[in-house]
Specification:
single chain, alpha+beta, 5 helices, Arc Repressor Mutant, subunit A, three-stranded antiparallel sheet
Length: 85
């Protein structure tokens, strides 16, 4: 049996499958977003990612996880921006 090592070139030639695109929020820019990442929220609120992490850990900001990614629902973000408790 012959080994077929994966080359660096082969990694960069990888095309995104439909399944990968479906589960990746960045692959569907036209799709309606229902949540933001920590990085996106820190840009929206003009604060550090560490500040968002503290709010998540402190329980003042609700979130959910998808794999390794923390996502904050837009409804939660808008609630805080309105000043609702």
């Amino acid at each position: 049996m012959k080994d077929n090592p994966i080359t660096v070139e082969a990694l960069f030639e990888h095309e995104t499958t439909e399944d990968e695109a479906f589960f990746s929020p960045t692959c569907h820019p036209e799709a309606e977003r229902t949540s933001l990442t920590i990085s996106e929220l820190s840009n929206r609120w003009n604060c550090s990612e560490r500040t968002i992490h503290r709010k998540l850990k402190g329980g003042t900001l609700n979130f959910f996880r998808v794999g390794w990614r923390y996502l904050i629902p837009l409804s939660e973000i808008e609630r805080i921006e309105r000043g609702d408790s």
